[in-house]
Every structure is written in C-alpha cells, then in structure tokens.
Amino acid sequence: MRNKYSSATIGWLVYVVLYASIVLLQAFYTRQSMGFISHEELAESVRNVWWLHNRTIYDGISSNVGWYALVQLAYEVFGFSLFTGKILRLILFAIGLLCSFDLLLKYLGKKWAWLPILLTGLSPTLLYFTTLQTSFGVDVPYFVIVVWLLVKFSQTGKLWVAALLGFVICLASLSYPSFLLYLPALGILFVMCLRQHKQKLGRSILFVLGLVLPLLTLLWYLADPSKLVFDPQVRSGIFRGGGTFPNSWNEVVANERAGLLVLYNDLFILPQSYYFNAARSEFSHLATRLSVLSILVLAGREFILLLLKKKYAAVLMPALSFLSLLIGSLLASLSSWFPGLRRATIVLVAFYLLVIWLLKLLGKKKLGRVSSLVLVAASLVILTHHLKVMPASYAQLSKPNANSEVACFTISGATPTASLARMRTHLQANSRLDLSSIPNASECRLSEVYAAVTADCYWNNLNCPEILWYDKDQNMPIELETELWDSYYFAH
After folding, report:
1. Which end of the chain lies in a sparser environment, N or C, as judged by fewer CB atoms within 10 Å?
2. pLDDT tens across 68-95, in order?
3. Cα–Cα dist 305/324, whole Å
4. Which residues, 6 or more positions from 197, have their beta carbon under 8 angstroms from its beta carbon?
C-alpha cells in the first residue's frame, strides 16, 4: 500500500514539475524578447489602450477591445510598464496550460498525458506568439480555458459556470477575431452539454447574459460606439480588425490560393508572414512533415472506420477537429490583408486534438499494433523537432527584425524602457515633447510616443506637464490629445 501511494505521489509530482518547467521556459522566452518592442506591440498594448482609457478607439482596425480592456485593468491596478502586455500573455498562458493539464490528465491519464502536454507546451509557434504583447495567438489559451469551463458545466450544470463560460467566450472573441473560428465546434459542444441538464432555459439565459455583457459594457463605455461597430475611414470594425472580405469569386480563389500558400510556408517551411518572425516553423523538417501526414492519415482512417461501424458518439472529437481544421485553413486565408498563421492557430489546435484523440484510442487499446507504433513514433519525431529548434528559437527573440521600432524606443542603443524614461525626463524638463535630438526621429510614430509618455505619467502618478508638440505647419505649439488623431488632424 505504501509503495502504491508513493508511486502515485511521484507521478503527480512529475506533472507538477513539468508544469512549472514549461511556465518557466515561457518566462525565459518572454524575458529574452524584451530587448526590443515592435510597432504592433506599441499599438496593441500602449496606444490603443490609452485611447480606450479615453473612451474611444484609435480606428476601426484597432478593435481588439477585449485585449485592450485587460491591459488597461492591469495598468489601473499595477501601474504602467511598456512590457505589461507580455506579462499578461505569460499569465494567460499559465492559466491555459493549467487547464490543459487538468483536462489531459483526466482524459488520457498519467500514462499518456505528458506527450500532448510537451507537444503543445514546447510548440515553437505557441512559444513565439506568447512572447508578443499583441493579441496574436491569444485564442489558443482562451480556447483551452473555454473547453475546461465546458467540461465543468457538463459535470455540474451550475448556473454561474454557464454565465462565466459565456463571458470568457465573448472576451476571447473581443480580444482577437480568430477566436470566432472556434465557435462552430464550441457551439455544438455547448448544446450537447446543455441537453444533459434540466432547466435548460435558465442555464441558456445566464449563458447568453454572460455572452453579451462584455460587449454591451464596452458599447456603453465608448463615447462613440458606432466607430467600433464600423469605422468608415478604414472600412473595418469589431470582429474584423485588418481583415477584409473579397468582392468576387475570382478574388476569393486568388486570396485562398495565396493565403494557403503563406499558411503552408508558416507551418512547414519558414515563418515569413506578418509578425511571425520565429526562427523555425512548427514542422520545418522533412521528418516532421511526414509525421504530420502520417497522423492525419491515421486519424482519417480511424474516423472512417468508426463511422462505418455507426459509432457516432466516438467520432465527435475528430469530427469537430477536422471541421476546425477546414474552417481555420479556408476562412483565415479568405482576406488578402497579410494572411498567415497568426490568424490560423486553430489549425495547430485541431491537429494536436487529433493526436490527443488517437492517444485516447491507444490507451483504450483500440488501435492496432502498427497504428500504435506509427502514432507514437510520429509524435516523438515532432517532439524531437521541437526540442532541436529550441536554441535557435530562443536566440531569435533577442534580434531586431523589420517590425522592430528602431527610433524613439531604442535611443542611442538604449532599451525601450530606458528610452521611454529619457523622453519623459525631457518632457518634464522642457514642458514639451521634442524628438528632434533623437537620431532617425522621422521614423518615430507620434501616436505611439505620445501614448507611451502620457500613459507612463498618468498610471504611474508622475508629475508631468501637459504634452505640447510644435506644429511646423501652424508654426505654434499644440497640446497633444487623442482627439487630434480621431479627427485626422494627424494622419493614421
């Protein structure tokens, strides 16, 4: 009895250490990425947050208000830092990882849960996106959290779980439109969970209330909610971001062809799409590509065999995974506006869900011997690839790239934080924001600099004067405020 107890304790301890190790690894990745800051990060975690604080949005493309609200809350509680968004991404990653540990240990048991945990926890793509303080890839931890809540709702049927489930789904959708791609599968799962309980109407009402509450609150909070719904200046708005819809079938075909090619390169060749500057792709070696193909063929074969046997309940998970794989590949490639894996991370989620499902069949001894060997071998090849590319992926994070801000937030080689302190000190001493002494000042984006300096002063309770800017066209100093960009006095 004592040996059995000790063995169980050691087994759980291994998973505790594994969880802490993956979170610590991601923390090192995040720390490594703090030498530079990109324009998109400044926009998504500083500028757009300051605009939201002023009850407006920068423009209809800058509509990921769920993410901005979360960052703003962090600023209100803990004060301002240029890299608060990175810490939030790390926390969200840790919560999602904890939920995945709980789900996988219950679904696969301690014997096999470690394999998908390592495959996803060491994913080069997910490790990279989590270092960004934008909403790119934020759909993945939100999806895991939502599935965990769905399981809790299925088990307990508690009303508060239904409300919280709706709230998190809405928050995730408002944080990044790519989360909408998960909704068909999640909707089917929710209906199935709801059918297990009595008082379906009450639970449905609370779910819907939780679902609409974040959106209604934000629309009430904004001075001009119509701009969030649709901004005619940029012809975009909520749940769209920079995405655009094609105007003809020819454009649909052209967009899909180009978008799928970019997605293929991001997954299997080399990351080159918008803001995906990882050193290696998820499956960059020939062996990993063959492993992915083997797993997809194996999953398809088992799926068809179960369908032929009319075991419909057993094919729900692979059916939803294949559906999500198709939706993610096609819909994420529909827009011609910078396609790429950042919009289609659901593809990775769906693939790893198929691996998890096959491991479940393996654990229940419902896979043949050859199929079992193929599954384990292919999974280990992918895991080996993840480990092999880790040094290059880590080193890449400290290198500036084409998206790095290289003027106002790297003054004379200083760090972004030191550069911001220098600009703030100059403002306090001269009562005017003056970038003329900065090399390459013409490359500075005034909206980002203004938002960073004024947010630093406001949320850190610093003694700063009104921020003045000398307008050469008017030949006079003007006070900087968000309305100057809202009215397009300054171009976007």
Report:
1. N
2. 999 999 999 999 999 999 999 999 999 9
3. 20
4. 157, 203
* 395, amino acid identity: A
**Rounded CA gap, 179 and 171, in Å?**
10
Q: Tens digits of per-residue pLDDT, 404-415?
A: 888 899 887 789
pLDDT at residue 4 greater than cutoff 70: no
The residue behind tokens 């390169």 is: 265
pLDDT, tens digit, for every residue of 335-378?
878 899 999 999 999 999 999 999 999 999 999 999 999 999 99
Burial class (CB in 10 A: 0-12, 13-18, 19+), 111: exposed
Give a yes or no: residue 423 inside a domain. Answer: yes
Neighbour-count burial of 262, counting CB atoms closer than 10 A to its CB (0-12 exposed, 13-18 middle, 19+ buried): buried
- Cα–Cα distances (Å) from 485 to 48, 52, 451, 480, in that order, read 12, 13, 12, 9
User: Total domain count for the chain?
Assistant: 1
Whether 315 is in a domain gets the answer no
Q: How far apart are CA 247 and CA 252, in angstroms?
A: 8
Judge whether 426 lies within some domain.
yes
Contact of 467 with 473, CB cutoff 8 Å: no
Residue 162 CA, distance from chain mean position: 23
- Here the contacts of 305-309 (C-beta below 8 Å, separation 24 or greater) are none
Q: Which of 63-67, 272-276, 406-410 is modeled with the greatest confidence?
A: 63-67
Domain of residue 440: give its range: 411-486
The pLDDT tens digits for 295-351 are: 999 999 999 999 999 998 899 999 999 999 999 999 988 887 889 999 999 999 999
The CA-atom distances, in angstroms, between 410 and each of 237, 416, 448 are 32, 6, 14
Reference 102, options 142, 137, 145; nearest CA is: 145
Furthest C-alpha separation in the chain: 86
Residue 184 · residue 327 · CB < 8 Å: yes
Answer whether residue 454 is part of any domain.
Answer: yes
Q: In the 8-state DSSP scheme, what is residue 401?
A: -
